[in-house]
């Protein structure tokens, strides 16, 4: 069996909160936002992993740790067998060509003062792709690949709509011909019909370029459409992970069930509503035991005492829930 | 099948047609007028700026002396024109270098954070703690009066505003996603800072530059007032205003004409600042 | 049940800008019955928000209502003097907004904001109790303690609940909710939506829900108006709309949402929404429409009945069941949005 393209093990990333002199005097312990807390998963070449969760669950932070935009506190990120965590800037350089990212906000993901053509040319220049003569042709090719015109190269980002800017962001990511594309909520800021266009574009590009993808989103419907596997995150941890069809047909974790029932669908079968009350707690003061227990309708004594591990309870289907584990045993 | 040249033209030609904002046009014209007049002063007037003539003291503006004469009989218009050279020179030099230095230092502080930020900002804090004029006066008093020392004094104090302005903008810009994208693409830190962040962060500093020139000219005038300015009999406007104070009742033109010159210059730079702000706006903003 | 409390007739809203006049709302007409849940569906620029704001009288100059009428409980709100309009607002018609972070006054406590609304109707003695009762009804735990909270001490979901409490304080007959859950997390969205629908039943209110989420519409709404470029392009009962959509834009919207059936492909609409200043003639959707013909851009197209209680602004309704004559260009195609 081929080695997975990306393998994340026990990744941890906490953000320390400011801790001043007064806090030290008052003996308050330094606090941290536990954004990513011991996360492990793999992505095989050519597959798409959907990373789902609500705001604050750590999915974006996780994406940035993989890209080494943040330096994780612990754990390893193995790309094609090599642990990226130990590499310095020079060592990372070749990997910057192999994995790329598309961001969420079309209005801040492009430098407003750089024309589109210059932006793409700069990428090619920095990575030494193509000869000077070829680069202009490549820029034109990239633009048409994402559905824009060659003459758009002369324009500045401010002259484009949100959807077009997302296309530009995708073109920029594809300029280095990456193997892995991490899409961090690329559709969230767009109108419905434009979302569909960009989603279709991503699918077409994935097929034609053989991309491996990690698709980060809070929208389960979109994730279902495009992913091979899905991992559900809550408060810094993965609570359920399975191949897409399986997750949607036989969801096990109460949070997954809540997410699914919270998503009204056209023509969908009305799922038994798992009503989750309350608000997600802060990632600073994480509840003891299972992090979801304060909001969980199945909450039992064990849930408060012991944090459940992510275990494979069904074939290729892992769940972190004591109640689910007992039920499936 | 397009040719190489065609492709290059398609991709790289951003078709920059600079729009001419009216403020830029007027300010530019005003600049041309005053720079031209000051350079052509020997041609435009036959008087010597330092030429004293006690037969002609305190003459009101008239046909032979368009701006009148001062208490030494010197033609005021001539002195204003020659003085323009001094004031414009000081005004521009005393802001350009602080702008360059302050922007660079401020952007590095904002982008890299850590000890760079600490050192820079604490220095800025110390300098800011003392009122600007007081500090400049102290430095000039220490170094002695004269144009070069004035430039040194103002320069070594004036950069802090620019660094604060730019640092603030950089702090905001560096969290935007295009910076993260550049990092993910493996761009080097300095390329990102100088090529991407700084151009987006520097606009408020450039706009401040325009009004800073006016402030510098006024500071020079204040220094002249205190006897720490450009050495007499140099026709620096500030000195002229301060010397002309005593004659406000019987020779108002001695102090007022250089005052008008300051106003003219101030207005000119503000208009230029507006024009520059407009020029800095990139399509779509 | 079919007793209209709101009748909007040929409403037009214009906003002068430097480039020209933006025709945000162009002749919108619909009726909402007592106790009904009505949805205005559309994307940005469709005019749905402006329509709501016009109903409640929140169009700020230089924008203005350029024509039409909004008849609520017998009064035309467009023609009412401000003082009378203020009386209707808050007690008859209320509006809840999208962004909970900025909708509450940051310097007033929750109690102050609720009682401010109550003060016009209730005697002061009972106001505090009423406020507590309202907070309980909107599902805020421990309401007595929450009365003293400020907006920044509340989460997004809680702020939205407080907004609802303020809105419902005087038991209005009509509630307008402009994308009330868009800014919230998915699970909180579900909670708030459920709350609104429950309260609606309890109070016997009519609800106009502005949304872009077709799933919400499908599950919770009685009647829908689909808006595009300032006009209603289709109007029908929900079940009917989804079973037999009779406008290419509606069909496109439904096809833009990934469905449970993975085998059903997305059929995105290509192109971009029109310029709201300069439309050109005829159907504004024509440039993006796979069924469009010359006729479509020839003349203005009125809303016409295409079934029982079902209206559409398309002249080719009979052809919509079969495949479109031209394949919609690939969404990645030139001039894609």
Using brief descriptors, characterize the structure shown.
heterotrimer, A: 329 residues, alpha/beta, 8-stranded mixed beta sheet, 4-stranded antiparallel beta sheet, B: 285 residues, mainly alpha, MetI-like fold, 12 helices, 0% strand
Kindly describe this structure.
The complex is a heterotrimer of chains A (329), B (285) and C (337). Chain A is α/β, with parallel strands linked by helices and 329 residues long. Chain A contains twelve helices and twelve strands. Chain A has an eight-stranded mixed beta sheet with strand order 6-7-8-3-9-10-12-11, sandwiched between helices. A four-stranded antiparallel beta sheet of chain A has the order 2-1-4-5, with helices on one face. In chain A, strand 11 (311-314) and strand 12 (317-319) form a beta hairpin. Chain A is globular, with a radius of gyration of 21 Å. Chain B is mainly α. In chain B, helix 4 (76-112) runs antiparallel to helix 5, helix 4 crosses helix 9 (189-201) and helix 6 (132-143) packs antiparallel against helix 7. Chain B is built from twelve helices and no strands. Chain B is flat and about 75 Å long. Chain B has helices spanning 4-12, 22-39, 41-44, 76-112, 114-129, 132-143, 147-173, 177-184, 189-201, 203-225, 237-244, 252-280. Chain B has a single domain (74-280), classed as MetI-like (MetI-like fold). Chain C is α/β, with parallel strands linked by helices. Chain C has eleven helices and twelve strands. An eight-stranded mixed beta sheet of chain C has the order 6-7-8-3-9-10-12-11, with helices on both faces. A four-stranded antiparallel beta sheet of chain C has the order 2-1-4-5, with helices on one face. Mean pLDDT of chain C is 87; it is low at 330-337.
Topology (SSEs and partners):
The complex is a heterotrimer of chains A (329), B (285) and C (337).
Chain A: E1 6-16, H1 21-25, E2 32-43, E3 48-52, H2 59-66, E4 74-79, E5 82-83, H3 89-98, E6 99-102, H4 116-126, H5 132-145, H6 162-174, E7 180-184, H7 192-209, E8 212-217, H8 220-226, E9 229-234, E10 237-243, H9 244-249, H10 254-262, H11 301-305, E11 311-314, E12 317-319, H12 322-328
Parallel strand pairs in A: 3-8, 3-9, 6-7, 7-8
Antiparallel strand pairs in A: 1-2, 1-4, 4-5, 9-10, 10-12, 11-12
Chain B: H1 4-12, H2 22-39, H3 41-44, H4 76-112, H5 114-129, H6 132-143, H7 147-173, H8 177-184, H9 189-201, H10 203-225, H11 237-244, H12 252-280
Helix pairs in contact in B: 2-4, 2-12, 4-5, 4-7, 4-9, 4-10, 4-12, 5-7, 6-7, 7-9, 7-10, 10-11, 10-12, 11-12
Chain C: E1 4-16, E2 21-33, E3 37-41, H1 48-56, E4 64-72, E5 75-76, H2 82-91, E6 93-96, H3 100-103, H4 110-118, H5 124-137, H6 143-146, H7 156-168, E7 174-178, H8 186-203, E8 206-211, H9 214-220, E9 223-228, E10 231-237, H10 238-243, H11 248-256, E11 304-307, E12 310-312
Parallel strand pairs in C: 3-8, 3-9, 6-7, 7-8
Antiparallel strand pairs in C: 1-2, 1-4, 4-5, 9-10, 10-12, 11-12
